[in-house]
Amino acid sequence: MSKKITLVLYIVITSAPILAGLIYALLYSFGLIGILSKGFTLRYWKTLFSSDAALCMGYTLLLTMASIILILAISLILSYQLSKRPKSFLHKVLFIPLTMPPLIMAFAVFYWMSPGGIISRFLNQLGILEEIESFPRLVNDFWGVGIIITHVLLIAPLFTLLFTNQVKKEKLMDMADISYTLGGDATQFFRKIFIPVVLKRSKHLIVLYTIFLMGTYEAPLLLGRSTPRVLTIFITEKLSRYNLDDIPVAYALTSFYSVAIMITVQIFLTRSKNRSWA
Amino acid sequence: MAIGCGSNKTSEKQGVPNNWPEIEQKASNQTVTMMMWQGDPLINTYMKNFVVPTVKDKYGIDLEIVPGQGNQIVSTLISEQEAGAKTSQLDMMWINGETFYQLRKIKALHGPFVDRIPNNKYINWDSPFIRFDFQQEVDGYECPWGNVQLAIIYNSEYVENPPETLQELENWVKSNPGKFTIGNDFTGMTLLKSWLTFFAGGPEKIKGEFNEEVYRQSSEKLWAYINRIKPYFWNGGETFPSSVAQMHQLFANGEIWFTMSNNDSEVDNKINQGLFSENSRAYVPTYGAIQNSHYLGIAAKSDNKAAAMVVINYMISPEAQYQKMKPDVWGDHTILDIDRLPQEWKVKFNEIPGRQYAPQRSEIQENALMEPAPEYMIRLFSDFRTEVMEK
Q: Does residue A242 surpass a pLDDT of 80?
């Protein structure tokens, strides 16, 4: 009985506010509530679909996928190295980026990597760069290099530490010895055992951080381009710039995005459950 | 200037006593929450070290300043109205035209109240740049606080003769690729309003309420002009700075040779702070620049309107305006008519040291353009995205 009450309480505390927010956003997007509401309308949804929202969504997804792939690659390699040498200096260094808020990290990337930044000026002083403008554009660029670097610097250390703990918990490095005894080499162990086991054990975390990266704001604001822009910038601009009629459009995208994420997570969880039953 | 005559009865209903001594009495020992833009250290210092302690000493009022500008003020007050809140978390706000327009639209401003403030008698209501906010009569729903004009800042080490006309600007931008850009923000849009005024055929054409036909014709020319020179902008015109702070940063870094400011004297205080090079200069081109005022408003649902009125009265007093106008304090031009002030203040205002790197206000006054109606700003902002940034 008490278990049931705890579960109900948990749902009320965690899910109810989200659901209430979603209903509010939906009602707002259909003109049913809001200070300037004039009754049901599809106008705001039509405005949304005729805007650059789809481009923003695609761009956000691309940036997130690029970031997460790079984060995973780096974290897997680093955690493998750390597991081989558990008391290395790297282990301590990895805690430093974890103390930095995203905005500070974005600023740091900007100051290092913009054409007027530290690296460019240093190369200019050395005579390698004739003008600071010749420095390749790594911030406010089309490919979102600065944003991806910021994401990697923020998340890769965390993933590395978590993966390392996972390896320790699973006693994975003991399996390396068995694999060598059976004639395998380090590369085969890394590719065929280390990566699949770590990814499988951390899949929920990876999905959560993918969703988190899709919703980041500070790094794209400072390091991104005016167009295409990420979803959070699109929504913030619609919510808070000069046209009050844009507020329901922001709510329409918020509801669409939330429902899309919920469906994706649900599909992932169902498939993951089915596989574990199989 | 008769503003909001017969507002006493309304005010009494809204919890504000009828006469000033009673208002001051009611204001004593109250806390007033003010939301304002806090993006400039000099402005923050002026508020924190001068206004806040003075209103505490003189009236026993605790003035609490919270950060937030136009859109956040509107969002906060909209949310409160939608939630049916009886009182607002904000008492007073620093606002300007587009926020005033939005707040009037949702009836979130208290007023009329300005005619009840004693220092109202010194305000220069004869100036259209003060009486009208984005072509709207202020009607006593906001009190002028300061007056500024957009100025373009350039690095005189690299730019010997800054372009005075749009044709000269086009030639300059084409011969100096990557050194000019426009911010996708309030200041950038203010610059575009002066360009729109030029393409509309002058200030008279764009005066009054929003005119769709005038906007369509003039904006077509404006977008054609910008798209023609966009490839020569900073970063190839592929992206635009999102704030004036980012523009200043690029300017200070030497990435661009022009930035701009909605405060015509800002270049002086930025040089004094060591943020801009001493070669920086400000100017207003011959095609003109928007001059506007910024205002103080009181939230309709504030339960502390009397205290907010006392704070506003102090903020527009000769003492506070004089302090604010000093270039090393803020450099914000006063909204008071200096000729109406008592002799001692007249002398003080006239002795304020002149600007060193920006032109004197009297020199640029003839190139001052009125703010067009707020709809122009809304349309410019959204069309700048579709017609320029996304092309």
A: no
Phi, psi of B145 (to 5 degrees): -125, -40
Q: How confident is the model at residue A240 (pLDDT cuts 50, 70, 90)?
A: confident
Residue A31, phi-psi category: left (phi > 0), alpha (psi -120 to 50), beta (remainder):
left
C-alpha B213/C-alpha A155 separation (Å) is 52
> Residues A59, A230: contact at Cβ < 8 Å?
yes
What phi, psi does B128 have (nearest 5°)? -65, -20
Beta strand spans in A180-275 (E): none
In angstroms, the CA B298 to CA B293 distance is 17
Cβ proximity of A36 and A44 under 8 Å? no
Question: DSSP string covering A186-203, please?
Answer: HHHHIIIIIHHHHHHHTH
3-state secondary structure of A89: helix
Residue bearing the bigger pLDDT, A176 or B43: B43
Single-letter code of the amino acid located at B100: F
Cα–Cα nearest to B368, from B162, B194, B200, B218 = B194
Supply B289's token pair: 């620049």
Closest-CA distance of chain B to residue A170, Å: 48
Q: Count other C-beta atoms under 10 Å from residue B191's C-beta.
A: 18
For residue B303 the two structure tokens come to: 């339960």
Domains and CATH numbers, chain A: 52-240 (1.10.3720.10)
Does pLDDT of A186 surpass 50?
yes
Other beta carbons within 10 angstroms of residue B312's beta carbon come to 25
Please name the residue of chain B whose CA is at the shortest distance from the CA of residue A142.
Answer: B238
| pTM of model > 0.90 | no
- b/e code A186-207 from CB counts within 10 Å (16+ = b): eeebeeebbbeebeebbeeeeb
pLDDT over 80 at B150, yes or no: yes
Q: Do B78 and A35 touch (CB under 8 A)?
A: yes
CB contact under 8 A, B71 and A241: yes
Distance of CA B333 to the CA centre of its chain: 11
For chain B, give the number of residues. 391
N- to C-terminal Cα separation, chain B = 48
Which residue has tokens 């939301």?
A: B35
Give the largest CA-CA distance in chain B: 65
Which tokens is B196 given? 């729109």
Structure tokens at A212: 């988190």
Residue B369 host element (H or E): strand B368-369
Rounded to two decimals, the ipTM of the complex is 0.77
Q: Give the chain B residue whose CA is nearest to the CA of A234.
A: B385
DSSP state of B338: G
Q: Is B35 buried (19+), middle (13-18) or exposed (0-12) by CB count in 10 A?
A: buried
Task: Give, in words, the CATH class of B11-145+294-355.
Answer: alpha beta
Q: Which sequence spans correspond to the domains of chain B?
A: 11-145+294-355, 151-291+365-389
| CATH number belonging to the domain at B151-291+365-389, selected among 3.20.20.70, 3.40.50.720, 3.40.190.10, 3.10.310.30 | 3.40.190.10
* In the block, residue with structure tokens 């039953």: A277
Is A226–B102 a contact, with Cβ atoms under 8 angstroms apart? no
Residue B232 Cα distances to B172, B225, B236, B264, angstroms = 10, 12, 6, 26
Give tens-digit pLDDT for A189-211: 999 999 999 999 999 999 999 99
Does B71 sit within 8 Å of A240, measured CB to CB? yes
